[in-house]
Prior knowledge:
Elements: E1 11-12, H1 15-23, H2 28-33, E2 38-39, H3 42-51
Antiparallel strand pairs: 1-2
Amino acid sequence: MTRGAEAVERVSLDVRQLSQLYAGYLSAGQLARHGLIGSGSDRALELLQEVFPPGDPWVFPLDHF
């Protein structure tokens, strides 16, 4: 996988969308459907989906003290 300016497939998103993607709150496809992520191609979204697969959002466990 090539990163940075040399990459052929690119996406653009800000830290808010990246945190939603990283935490599993929204998938790359959902972000794209809502217009929250810029993508040069469908392949770029597929790659992003592979790096951040959809799943249940991660929530820090409760502290019962």
